[in-house]
Design brief:
heterodimer; A: mainly alpha; 13 helices; 0% strand; globular; B: Rossmann fold; 2 domains; 6-stranded mixed β-sheet; 24% strand; binds adenosine-5'-diphosphate; binds magnesium ion
Chain lengths: 333, 293
């Protein structure tokens, strides 16, 4: 095999894995949008907040320590323990459940039946509030997230593939980050469990019912408020997974919340209402931007990854506004 | 023969429907609506003092033209008004003697009151069977009981059994109506608030659906409050009827009496008595109505 061909495969593999990350974030949007018609602007900040909380809890940081110290003149920062990653993750999950309940109590409950644009504005407010609240709670410095996910290229894969190229060519094997591989596996497991949950459990069925028709769901006795809490909890969970993966990759800092922006083109491609759409859309964008950068990039000066996804999304908006997999609107006369 | 009773504001209509013939209709009042007013968006007064009762085991029809307030009345009972920015501002609604204004729809379904909404409202991306199963959402009596009821629904609506795996959105209008009624049945209700089941369906299907409603009433002892524009069909299947015009009950009586009433005949059934179709008749009806409301 020629090194060129092997490079291309490597690019595609890396693209797929980057795509999985995009899909993860997009998934959070789709879940909330389906169940409540809300475009949750705060999804990215939720991922940031979840990652910050995880780091803080794992390192035994005292929440609101700056505030406490300022008010009481104390000087506390740490509880002085380090929790195992799994314990910290579980506690963070509990925090995300509490967060979902608070969102329902303090925001959604008061805005039922409002126009979607008002709900959208509310989530913008929520995003900025959480951003500040997260900083207040855990401090705004860049944090290192280490939950024991190995990183660096996979030597195993490099050794396996080094012999694939023709004898004597300059090929040192495929480079794929272990973290990306693990993220891919985690994302696949997450999607499978979400699918099983929504297809085969009573609550999952109720979620889909609410997504289809709020009024009818109410009329059979499904409590919308309960469903919203469940949906925001799941979205919080997805945000946590996304936050952990991105955070482990590039540190926990404000820019992590901007991954939400990458999810937008994914949503436009995949459709706002389709879970498979979010996944495939993410993969297409991931592979697309890596391949584009690899093949066309050098010709036009590179750095195409910054805009490729948005241009692709624009093209889609023009030709297929409901996305690849957006809910078919069933209409009968 | 008893004349349909003229109604005044204070008439509680608490008596047993005079013409009720079916033995299964008991004297017990399941649902009592007393003089309710409903306002939408804080300004639009839609119901202006509606009172009616639904006896246990009966089919009670709520008749009237488009916009009369039938749907609003049903939603006031099932508490689905909130989600439409409607509010009951006056009067009381009692179910088995207890006020139900503060219950949410979910609690009401648990108490045995479920609404089948106008225009069916199936979950279109769910299969027919999944639709039916969502009806059992509030139940806590176990899978076996739910499955038994599922079979019961399929026995009443064999068409649904054939289409159990189809997405509800792709089934016909009649099947969707059956699906919506079946879904309500899955909550094992005591009272079904059924809103315009005949809407948009071919006459033969309408007949089929009303036959099933009648069977459900007789065999499963489900009581119905049935909102219908199709007065003709409704009065053939109901035991008692109320006629609603612009948010007021203008007439009520046993279905048999209403069917024979000349005003109902002319204005709702579309059959004038011979030689009487005259302007004088309209005027006298108008006069009577004003006097009533
Ligand atoms: N959500 C709403 N907001 C404002 N007005 C409404 C609403 N729903 C119904 N109405 C008005 O209330 C009146 C009664 O409507 P409805 O109860 O649906 O009548 P029916 O079911 O008898 O056709 C109509 O004039 C209608 O325009
Ligand atoms: Mg109506």
């Amino acid at each position: 095999m020629s090194p060129q061909f092997l490079f291309t495969i490597e690019v595609i593999a890396n693209g797929l894995m980057a795509g999985v990350m995009y899909s993860l974030v997009a998934l959070g949007f789709v879940l909330i949008f389906k169940a409540s018609g809300i475009f949750n602007y705060a999804q990215g900040v939720m991922a940031l907040f979840a990652a910050m909380t995880l780091v803080g809890i794992q390192n035994g940081q005292v929440p609101f320590s700056h505030l406490i110290n300022a008010v009481f003149g104390t000087n506390i920062h740490h509880f002085g323990w380090n929790l195992p990653a799994i314990v910290a993750i579980l506690i963070t999950l509990v925090v995300m459940v509490l967060f979902a309940i608070l969102v329902e109590r303090l925001i959604l409950k008061h805005l039922v039946n409002q126009e979607p644009i008002i709900l959208f504005m509310a989530t913008i407010g929520l995003a900025y509030f959480m951003e500040g609240f997260g900083d207040l709670m855990w401090g705004s410095e860049i944090k290192i997230l280490d939950v024991g996910i190995p990183s660096g290229g996979s030597l195993w894969l490099e050794e396996k593939t080094i012999g694939w190229a023709a004898e004597g060519s300059n090929y040192y094997g495929m480079y794929i980050d272990k973290l990306d591989m693990i993220a891919t596996v985690v994302a696949i497991l997450l999607v499978i469990s979400l699918t099983l949950f929504s297809q085969y459990t009573k609550t999952g069925r109720a979620l889909r019912a609410v997504a289809d028709d709020h009024q009818a769901a109410l009329s059979v006795g499904i409590s919308l408020r309960k469903i919203w809490v469940i949906v925001w909890t799941i979205a919080g969970f997805v945000a946590l997974v996304a936050g952990v993966m991105w955070g482990a990759k590039s540190g926990v800092q404000f820019s992590l919340s901007l991954i939400a922006l990458k999810a937008l083109p994914v949503l436009i491609l995949g459709g706002f209402t389709s879970i498979p759409g979010a996944i495939i859309g993410g993969l297409i964008i991931g592979v697309g931007e890596k391949l584009f950068e690899f093949t066309i990039g050098p010709l036009i000066g590179g750095a195409t990854e910054n805009w490729f996804a948005y241009v692709l999304a624009l093209v889609f908006l023009v030709f297929r506004p409901q996305g690849l997999f957006g809910d078919k609107i069933i209409e009968r006369v | 023969m008893t004349e349909p009773s003229a109604r005044t504001e204070n008439d509680q209509a608490a008596q047993l429907p005079p013409g009720a013939t079916a033995e299964s209709v008991s004297e017990e009042h399941l649902l009592e609506i007393n003089n309710i007013e409903v306002i939408y968006n804080h300004v639009i007064l839609v119901l202006k003092g509606v009172s009616l009762t639904v006896p246990k085991g009966g089919i009670t029809a709520l008749l009237g033209g488009n916009g009369a307030g039938k749907t609003t009345t049903l939603k006031a009972v099932s508490n689905l008004l909130h989600s439409e920015r409607g509010l009951v501002t006056k009067g009381t609604i009692l179910y088995r003697g207890q006020p139900i204004a503060d219950l949410n729809p979910s609690e009401l379904v648990k108490q045995g009151v479920v609404q089948v909404m106008e225009g069916r409202h199936c979950f279109e991306h769910l299969t027919v069977e999944e639709n039916l199963l969502t009806g059992a959402y509030t139940r806590r009596d176990g899978k076996a009981a739910v499955n038994r009821d599922l079979e019961m629904v399929y026995d009443y609506f064999p068409r649904l059994r054939d289409r159990r795996k189809s997405q509800a959105g792709y089934t016909s209008g009649g099947e969707q109506q059956m699906c919506a009624i079946g879904r309500a049945l899955m909550s094992s209700p005591e009272t079904i608030l059924l809103d315009e089941p005949s809407m948009g369906l071919a006459p033969q299907l309408v007949e089929e659906i009303f036959e099933i409603v009648k069977k459900l009433n007789e065999q499963e002892s489900v009581s119905f409050l049935l909102a219908e524009q199709n007065t003709n069909v409704a009065l053939r299947y109901a035991h008692y009827g109320y006629i609603l015009e612009s948010g007021r009950v203008v007439m009520d009586g046993s279905a048999a009496d209403l069917r024979e009433n000349p005003d109902v005949k002319e204005f709702y059934l579309g059959v004038a008595e011979e030689g009487q179709k005259s302007f004088r008749n309209v005027r006298s009806y108008r006069r009577r109505k004003r006097w009533l409301s």
